[in-house]
Amino acid sequence: MKTTTIATLVIAVAALATGCHKADDTNNNGMGPAQSAGKALDDAGANAKAEAKESANQAAAAADRAGDKIENATEHAADKAQQAGAEVRQESHEAAQNVKEGAAKATDATGKAVERAGQKIQDAAH
Question: How far is Cα 97 from Cα 103, in angstroms, rounded to an integer?
Fold first, then answer.
């Protein structure tokens, strides 16, 4: 409970403890001390309820904002991961092309070397 609510309750209890006497018409619309104390207690309860409801509403709003931020961050991370995956696939494809080209060049060079060796063998055989 908040300090103001506790203070209000203490004042109300003190008013009750002072005893009852006939209401004078100039004090609290003809209410006696007990009625005034009861009204103070009712008002304190209503104020505490309103404060609790407002706090709950603020907490719910903060939770909603946090949820939205988490959702946005998750979407952003998913987008980045998807983009990174696409880049890896592209780079892998390019690397595979380079390997194929390298293999083709190596095969070409090997074929030419074998051809030259074959030619030398034929030349030597004549």
Answer: 10
CA distance 30 to 113: 121
pLDDT digit string, tens, across residues 71-101: 999 999 999 999 999 999 999 989 889 888 8
pTM metric for this prediction: 0.44
Q: Which of 23-32, 60-69, 70-79, 99-108 has the lowest mean pLDDT?
A: 23-32
Element (H, E) at 124: helix 33-125
Q: Are 21 and 33 in contact (CB under 8 A)?
A: yes
Q: To 5 degrees, how large is the angle CA 39–CA 43–CA 49?
A: 145
- Could you give the 3-state DSSP secondary structure of residue 25? coil
* Interatomic CA distance for residues 27 and 31, integer angstroms: 7
Task: Give Cα 56 distance to the centre of its chain.
Answer: 19
